Amino acid sequence: MTMLQRTSSIDPVKLDRLAQVAVKIGLQLQAGQDLFLTAPVAALPLVRRIVEHAYRAGAGLVTPILSDEEITLARYRFGPDASFDRAPNWLYEGVAKAFVGNTARLAIVGDNPMLLAQEDPAKVSRANKANSVAYQPALEKIAGFDINWNIVAYPGTAWAREVFPGDEEDVAVTKLADAIFAASRVDTDDPIAAWAAHNAALRARTAWLNGQRFQALHFSGPGTDLMVGLADDHEWQGGASTAKNGITCNPNIPTEEVFTTPHARRVSGHVRSTKPLSYQGTLIDEIAVRFEEGRIVEAKAARGAEVLNKVLDTDEGARRLGEVALVPNSSPISKSGILFYNTLFDENASCHIALGQCYSKCFLDGGKLTPEEIAAKGGNKSFIHIDWMIGSGEIDIDGVHADGRRVPVFRRGEWA
Ligand code: ZN
Ligand code: ZN
């Protein structure tokens, strides 16, 4: 394993465009605004491009924090046992403070998705829990959309090898880089214009769905007959949206989905996953679950069933839905046929549902609602939020109105 990979297999022009898109579309970084950035050390070539574009856009102060796979593994192998219940609270408190002060947030993903697969699962979950608890005050500002934030991806070597196991390292990195560039719309000469057009197309979809005000969506297809009630006063979101600090940004690059909040107590029927779910180094495949009154009462998986059932037992909300999202089967990520082992990409390949926490921004005036009001409208609450894919070229979706009237939304995996 190398710490810094050679960058010769990554197109420098497209990498620079990706940095520009992250700053100008992903963040809409404002003149004078500070930026807090995290990235794996392997993504340093992209970090450098982003920092340059940020300062050229008038950034105040850019503060990067880098992580390294070898350093993470050293903790698991040599760190004292008690340390797995601890997290750097002082750091996360500072991050929350930065967000209160209107600092923008950028995360570059690109780590090996199987990095912790060989480590003690109890240590992994203790460390995750300690981190989630310490990070909570900062995460609230992100989940509540207080500030503009964005996630982009860099083709790390270990990740590329996982996605393209049959290829030489250089070839795998080039393939993953090209897939990231295409999905992030930087394979065109004017990515800024391409994103404006894409955001407009997503806005047209959300406007139509918000006008319909469906009470439920009915999914049908092989192994699937699922009625997903939608939360009261739900709002469909997709593409660019405006944070509470008034800045309109694209939190995810890439993004293909329009999504909203299901009603945590009004989901019934059964559904089968259409793509494997990569969860903390475990692959969970061929998931089949049955819902009664919003709750999963039966769960099976051909692979990873034990991990799936552990996840479902996290808390009461883990057995209920917090998101439903629509993505046509012809989306560029779906057409690539690549399993990325990374939710940022895989969730944009297919219609999906998420177990666990809902988004407050997916309600009318969501920013002003208290957690109690969100729960009363059907919003789910949980420590987890895990997306898994239920769409394919064989899925039909009907929108169901309060009076039972049905409107075709998807036919054979495409917008009707
Ligand atoms: Zn989603
Ligand atoms: Zn999600």
Overall body shape = globular
Mean pLDDT reading = 94
The total tally of domains equals 2
Q: How many separate helices?
A: 12
Largest sheet: 9 strands, antiparallel
Poorly predicted spans? none
**Strand count:** 20
Distance N to C terminus: 48 Å
Radius of gyration: 21 Å
Strand content: 25-35%
> Which structural category do the helix and sheet elements fall into?
alpha+beta
List cofactors, ions and other ligands: zinc ion
Helix content: 25-40%
Task: Explain this structure.
This protein has helices at residues 12-27, 44-56, 69-78, 89-100, 121-143, 157-163, 169-183, 191-212, 305-312, 332-336, 343-346, 371-376; strands spanning 35-40, 62-67, 104-109, 149-153, 216-221, 224-230, 237-238, 241-242, 248-249, 258-260, 262-272, 277-279, 282-292, 295-303, 321-326, 352-356, 385-389, 396-400, 406-411, 414-415. With 416 residues, it is of the alpha+beta class. The chain has two domains: 12-183, Thermophilic metalloprotease (M29) (Thermophilic metalloprotease-like, 3-Layer(aba) Sandwich), CATH 3.40.1830.10; 211-242 and 256-415, no CATH class. Strand 3 (104-109), helix 5 and strand 4 (149-153) form a beta-alpha-beta unit. The protein starts with 11 loop residues before the first helix and ends with a strand. The mean pLDDT is 94. The structure holds zinc ion (ZN) (2 copies). One zinc ion is lined by residues 323, 347, 354, 385, 387.
Question: Summary?
Answer:
This protein is an alpha+beta fold and 416 residues long.
